[in-house]
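Input record (Table S2, row 154):
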Amino acid sequence: MGPIQTLCCPRDGTALVRGHATRSDAFTDHGMLHCPTCTGILLNAEAATNSITEEKLKKMHQAFQTDCEKTDLDCPCCDSKMRVRQIVFKRINGTDLEPIELDGCPECNTFWFDSGELQRVVSPDDEPYEESDREANALLMALELLILLPYKFV
Ligand SMILES: [Zn+2]
Ligand SMILES: [Zn+2]
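Output record (zinc ion complex):
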């Protein structure tokens, strides 16, 4: 991979970082970066080298090109304003998880997951970790699993 430009959190402007290098680089394969301040997660389909994930994210991206609410968030990867939709992932047993508000860019294949939203869905009873690093890594792992599940926009 070539040099990466610094991307900033659309919520608080903090420079986004990659997950821990000690873990597998599945995170970087999936084009995932997180914000050390709010532990939100940026996903970029262009950076995904896993074809299943890439295919899925590109389909998700299409949903942001049609009708959905505009937000004031600047896309970290291009000049567009991001848009917001509710997305529902399905558990393996077919039941729905709680809907998540997902921000997406209508132009490039970029998505933003707020950490609070993610935490609420993947482990509603757990308190977030005190260190943002551990919290971010826990959420990155959760999101990696989540993204492989079937989903629908509501
Ligand atoms: Zn942030
Ligand atoms: Zn964009």
